[in-house]
């Protein structure tokens, strides 16, 4: 087998520098969540935690296997005592705060996140909920639980894998168990690392590698092989060991300073902080008196390390609640106060919960099966109660709002279908799918939706993200843009979203139009909007489309509409109203670009929805308790109905070719019927 853990270094003996390394990890994570300058890569602290866990857990299991003391339930019972008491305290606190003190309009989303977080599957929940319609990260108080999910899944599989490898090694060659161990360990690490690189996807696709345990497994393995490296390093001169420690701390610092939220991560880049943590532990085991180990063993670092688990649990929910209450605003004084409070709560949790539990577990570890059963039952019970509380009780504790109900489909007899057309666009078209299909059928028309979130309905253009990196998820959408057989087309999009403008809200990042036939002369996004829309109209006309109705930009609100309306009702603070002048300034050039695109083209109309939701001076996403918007810019069912009725004549024209009725505002300048 691999060199004996007990012979090299008792992995269960206390090593102060390990707690100091935990302090480095938690400090970088907290700094990252505060968005402190030059510390944007602080999320790599999670990678450091993974390496530490791999070192401790894998080698404790191996030591017990060697001494023939290993028990699956004994191992899982120790993990339950270590993880669950503080974890369940924080999750229950989040449940109470999220559904009472704080307005939480997304009951279903929070219920799902709570349930899966409490049963240690938060990583898979947040992987599945990445994407265009995803809420801003700071509105999710349990988001940080993804890393605990990864660790718990590692705790479940690690002993099964290690026992399996040991059994296989004995059967293959009982005299060379060590060789089999090396081959199996390296094989698993290489496969995991390769998968990590392969499944790290850019924005627009779920970043699988970030969230799942198999693509993070190589980091745990790096920690696990540390004792095997110690004998070789001990034979080297002391200055080399000191250099390894310094290199390790520099690698972590480099990752923290160079990486940020825009870095494609983890990929191969995660090797930098993981290798740094590995070098620090190796050098500390070889010589705990090296300068880095001594620094990490100082009182303040050890103290922070001891409460690092509880601090990790507390810090993010408090930051999340502070930002959510401030509607996404950044008040560093409030956030630092939240971090300070979380640190105090962490110290209390360590003193009043973690330390007593450590004493109790000596009494109950003689019955590990019962401990594991109670732990599983506790998680399932809390998860179930929280789930049904969030779905069935919490909604009745908050103001009721109307307008978000699904569109009523098939409520009456339809006339025969005489006209066929397309609803084309991005997410603004997607939310109109059900109500507009109903309106079309009522008018004797059939409506097919061709839309993809985050993709502008503009031919001869491509899309880059706000960092200038090309995105490819729109290619299938452009390929599906086929107008053959359509008599009419309705085009709806969040036009301002693709013009490189500063984001109007904290939920969605902007995109930038790119010319597919780029020349040496740069083209503005507004010119590309005109060109792309003209190309789409031209293609539709060549395909036999007779009527095209283009919807101008919808109002863009700075905050999630249900939340700000609920908050206004509950505490009397109006964060929903926006000034007409600011909105007009943001959309003036956009409307001009759309007008240029339709200039002189017969059978094309442009309608401007601004008058539906604005007065002369202000705009609101609601009227009393009826919501016209479901988030910051997407129409609700009630909003779609109001919009359709306000332009009923224009919609009947495009759907049937009938005469124009009354309407609020139609912009047909420079266009012909």
Low-confidence stretches: 1-8, 660-673
Helical content (DSSP H or I, runs of 4+): 55-70%
Briefly note the structural class of the backbone.
alpha/beta
The share of residues in extended strands comes to 5-15%
Radius of gyration: 29 Å
Q: How many structural domains in the coordinates?
A: 2
Shape: elongated
Task: Compute the number of strand runs.
Answer: 12
Largest sheet: 6 strands, mixed
Which strand order do you get reading across the main beta sheet? Answer: 2-1-4-6-8-12
Give a structural overview.
With 673 residues, the chain is of the alpha/beta class. The protein has two domains: 392 residues, no CATH class; 197 residues, Rossmann fold, CATH 3.40.50. The chain is built from 27 helices and twelve strands. The strands form four sheets. The chain has a six-stranded mixed sheet, with helices on both faces. Helix 11 packs across helix 13 and helix 16 packs antiparallel against helix 17. The protein is elongated.
Question: What are its keywords?
Answer:
27 helices, 673 residues, Rossmann fold, two-stranded antiparallel sheet, six-stranded mixed beta sheet, 2 domains, elongated, disordered C terminus
